[in-house]
């Protein structure tokens, strides 16, 4: 059976409504998963029940992460936050980690996961980490904006088989201090953590770039989505046989098929 992926919703402040970029859903579907978009819920019991139906979770882009999560006051450059989304995603993330279910974070996703696990963020890169690297490119977003260096001892390298890759980029916040539970998988030329993972878990990866915009044209983006879905497929197979669960490092090497 295809694994079910709970996708964290995007929020439109002006329309007071949920919305979604099809690339997140299509990227999961082409990799072999079934995406479902979560509603906004604030009841932990309801969220946990919904999470029990899912094999994995995608933490999407969107609003700035509330700086209170990592113990800072808002800077004047901070853009719109969504406290209800932060609260909901914290519950889902902790549930996923507790159940050792697969997690993939994209853009805001890497920032939120790092902050929720005790790391900190640059609230605004242009003022706090000025650089010549184009972190906020103009459309189209399916083209590389800069390179990232991939750590050879990381599951991302096992998945992609490349020491350096080109990535797209559209963000003004970024990981500052990495949470103790996470390790860096890739860095930008100006030293930003561009990909993280949690060792010892089945699959908890997060990237700063946007495979949902580039998966149609970029094999590496497809490989990341496929590694995510394969980790869930492996979980279903192993749980059905009563075998021991595999870690993210073991699943990563199977993500190299287009």
Mean pLDDT: 94
Residue fraction in strands: 15-25%
CATH class: Alpha Beta
CA(first)-CA(last) distance: 20 Å
By CATH, the topology is: Rossmann fold
CATH 4th-level superfamily: Class I glutamine amidotransferase (GATase) domain
Range of helix content: 25-40%
| Series of secondary-structure elements, N-terminal to C-terminal | EEEHEHEHEHEHEHEEEEEHHH
Structural class: alpha/beta
User: How many domains comprise the coordinates?
Assistant: 1
Q: Uncertain regions: pLDDT < 50 for 5+ in a row? A: 241-246
Main sheet: strand order: 4-1-5-6-13-12-11-8-9
Architecture (CATH level 2) name: 3-Layer(aba) Sandwich
Reported for the largest beta sheet, the result is: 9 strands, mixed
Count of distinct strands: 13
**Number of helices, counting only DSSP H or I runs of 4 residues or more:** 9
- Measured on Cα atoms, how large is the radius of gyration? 17 Å
Q: What's this model, at a glance?
A:
By secondary structure, the chain is of the alpha/beta class.
Structure in words:
This protein has 258 residues and is of the alpha/beta class. It has a single domain (4-256), classed as 3-Layer(aba) Sandwich (Rossmann fold), CATH 3.40.50. 33% of the residues lie in helices and 19% in strands. The chain contains 9 helices and 13 strands. The strands form 3 sheets. A 9-stranded mixed β-sheet has the order 4-1-5-6-13-12-11-8-9, sandwiched between helices. The protein has a two-stranded antiparallel sheet with strand order 2-3. A hairpin with a 6-residue loop joins β12 (193-197) and β13. α2 (44-52) crosses α3. It is globular and about 50 Å long. The two termini are 20 Å apart. Mean pLDDT is 94; it is low at 241-246.
């Amino acid at each position: 059976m295809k694994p079910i992926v709970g996708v964290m919703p995007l929020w439109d402040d002006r329309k007071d409504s949920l919305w979604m970029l099809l690339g997140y859903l299509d990227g999961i579907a082409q990799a072999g998963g079934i995406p479902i978009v979560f509603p906004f819920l604030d009841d932990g019991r309801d969220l946990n029940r919904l999470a029990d139906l899912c094999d994995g979770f995608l933490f999407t882009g969107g609003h700035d992460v509330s700086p209170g999560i990592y113990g800072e006051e808002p800077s004047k450059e901070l853009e719109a936050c969504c406290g209800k989304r932060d609260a909901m995603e914290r519950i889902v993330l902790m549930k996923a980690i507790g159940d050792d279910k697969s997690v993939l974070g994209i853009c805001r996703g890497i920032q939120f996961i790092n902050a929720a696990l005790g790391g900190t963020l640059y609230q605004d890169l242009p003022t706090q980490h000025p650089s010549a690297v184009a972190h906020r490119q103009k459309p189209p977003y399916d083209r590389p904006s800069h390179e990232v260096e991939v750590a050879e001892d990381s599951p991302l390298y096992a998945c992609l088989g490349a020491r350096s890759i080109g990535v797209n980029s559209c963000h003004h916040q970024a990981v500052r201090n990495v949470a103790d539970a996470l390790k860096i998988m890739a860095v930008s030329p100006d030293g930003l953590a561009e990909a993280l993972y949690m060792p010892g878990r089945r699959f908890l990866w997060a990237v700063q770039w946007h495979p949902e915009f580039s998966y149609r044209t970029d094999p590496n983006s497809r490989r990341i989505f496929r590694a995510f879905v394969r980790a869930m497929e492996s979980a279903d197979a192993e749980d059905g046989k009563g075998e021991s669960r595999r870690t993210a490092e073991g699943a990563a090497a199977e993500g190299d098929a287009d």
